[in-house]
Structure formats: C-alpha cells, structure tokens
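Example 9 (inverse folding). The structure is encoded as follows.
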C-alpha cells in the first residue's frame, strides 16, 4: 500500500492501528520514513512524531508531526 511494486518504498500506516504501541512498530515506521524521505534526516531526532487522535463516535485519525507542523494521514479507501 502506498508504495511501488517490488520495492521497499512506502508503508501501510493503517496496520499500526491493530498493533500495540510498545512493540516498537511506530518507531520503526519513523525510521523508515527518514529513509524514504531523505530531507527528514536533516532534522533532529525529536522533530518527527507520530500520534493518533480519537474522533467520535469510533474513528481514530493518525497524525504525523514534522518540525511542529501536524499532517493528518488521509483515510485510505
């Protein structure tokens, strides 16, 4: 999903919703994001964050924050 066939580029970010955060998956996603988007390597280690926002009644939106700017991950259809 969101990648090129036959390459390691891209990430299935919705798969994070069904995994415990303590297993290291979010940190692995951020490390892969730094590899896929080289400009992020210039930022300090705490400048890229990943979090979720609960939206009633039963929605969970994922947000990537880069250098203080929040980017909501669009819903996959």
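The amino acid assigned to each position is listed next.
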């Amino acid at each position: 999903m969101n990648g090129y066939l036959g390459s390691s580029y891209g990430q299935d970010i919705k798969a994070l919703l069904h995994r415990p955060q303590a297993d290291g998956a979010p940190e692995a996603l951020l490390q892969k994001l730094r590899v896929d988007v080289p400009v992020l390597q210039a930022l300090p280690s705490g400048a890229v964050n990943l979090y979720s926002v609960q939206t009633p009644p039963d929605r969970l939106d994922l947000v990537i924050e880069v250098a203080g700017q929040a980017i909501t991950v669009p819903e996959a259809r």
